[in-house]
Design goal:
- The structure is a single chain.
- With 382 residues, this protein is an alpha/beta fold.
- The protein is built from nine helices and 14 strands.
- Helix 2 crosses helix 7 (234-246) and helix 5 (176-186) crosses helix 6.
């Protein structure tokens, strides 16, 4: 059986997500805003949840119908045969995104949707499923336009940036999906030296290590909503897990994390231990401005502190110092710097090879690529 599958991602990562899908054999996709769509199987649903590092959630379309007001929404939702998808004993949660000019109150639409689902079960069985907004067994997602309603089941449950190894969060953490996307954008070959000089809780480090070892992003995660669906096929899921386990390898890549804050270093080390207690990532307490390259080339990926998350006395001067350290301490390297301080990042003092707009949660960010040449750039063309 084929399903219409929508995989959600962060703004700016649609192309990266499309590339990820192609690597697991899904090539016929339609790119949407912050999402991609394709026709796929149960196996594809499971593989997406396990392997896609830049995916936020994997939605499966249940139905689409003509709906233009709240009463029509209720009747339409109630007409769906919900007991073909999940059991009465499952807890549920509803989320609604509405771009309708008439139906603008998402919370009210969620209530109407919830009423319709529970009334379907009550009318048929004399009982109703319970609602659990924090940790539901089944998540129902609604997308409402002026005259149509699309109904999805969220196969992921919790967003997929919850990787499953109980990561401890630092003060200025970057979203795991965004971190993975930036590493993909950087073109890192999983062999060259990889450095995060202000690593915080180690998100870039853990994502880079899992990529280098071919560890699926949610390999340690136990909870997925698709396991609570009536059509869950445990044999297919076990086969996918076993195949993924057999493809995990060791890496020879040198992955380094540094941070001036000893507490952050301890946090990053603990997180890496949770990913793999035998991991080869080296996390060291050090001031970035006292570091120098130990190789002729490599890649630097960093999410420096910025004023909206960590107070800096002078952001512009701080970023100027970053630029000077890169220019004189890491010649031959390529640096990818992301920041939501859209003014301060300009003070790095080098012309970026590439600039991209990305979002870390609600924070608009810029990702800049800097090629740090040995000598003057113009000398390369003599």
């Amino acid at each position: 059986m084929k399903y219409t599958i929508v995989v959600k991602t962060l703004f700016g990562l649609e192309e990266i997500l499309t590339d990820e899908l192609s690597r697991i054999g899904i090539t016929q996709v339609t790119k949407l805003r912050r999402a991609v769509q394709f026709e796929g199987s149960l196996s594809d649903i499971y593989n997406c949840n396990l392997h896609l590092r830049t995916a936020l959630s994997v939605l499966v379309k249940v139905s689409i119908g003509s709906v233009s007001n709240e009463n029509e929404l209720y009747q339409y939702i109630k007409s769906i045969k919900w007991d073909e998808y999940f059991e009465l004993s499952n807890t549920i949660a509803i989320s609604v995104v509405s771009v309708s000019k008439q139906m603008t109150h998402s919370l009210f639409l969620e209530q109407k949707t919830k009423d319709a689902v529970v009334d379907y079960f009550r009318d048929k069985y004399g009982e109703r499923p319970d609602v659990d907004v924090k940790n539901p067994d089944v998540k129902i997602s609604i997308y409402q336009t002026d005259n149509s309603c699309s109904v999805y089941l969220d196969s992921s449950g919790k967003p997929l940036y919850f990787r499953g190894f109980n990561k401890e969060i630092g003060e200025a953490s970057i979203n795991e999906c965004l971190a993975a996307g930036i590493i993909y954008i950087s073109g890192w070959n999983k062999k060259d030296e990889f450095i995060d000089p202000m690593c915080g809780s180690g998100t870039f480090l853990s994502e880079a290590y899992m990529m280098a070892c071919n560890i699926p992003s949610t390999m340690q995660r136990k909870g997925f909503s698709f396991k609570n669906w009536i059509n869950f096929d445990s044999a297919i899921w076990e086969e996918i897990l076993n195949k993924a386990q057999s493809q995990i390898t060791e890496t020879e890549a040198s992955i380094f994390g540094f941070d001036i804050n000893p507490e952050a270093v301890l946090l990053a080390r603990n997180n890496m231990y949770k990913v793999d207690k035998n991991n080869s990532v080296r996390v060291t307490p050090a001031d970035f401005f006292e570091l120098n390259a130990t190789s002729d080339s490599g890649i630097i990926v960093s999410n420096p502190p910025y004023g909206t998350r960590i107070r800096l006395d002078d952001s512009n001067e701080f970023y100027k110092r970053i630029g000077n350290k890169l220019k004189f301490g890491f010649q031959g390297y390529t640096a990818w710097i992301i920041s939501s301080d859209l003014t301060a990042i300009k003070f790095i003092g080098m012309k970026p090879d590439k600039k991209l707009v990305l979002f870390n949660g609600q924070l608009e960010c810029r990702l800049h690529k800097f090629s740090i040449y040995k000598g003057k750039k113009k000398d390369l063309y003599k």
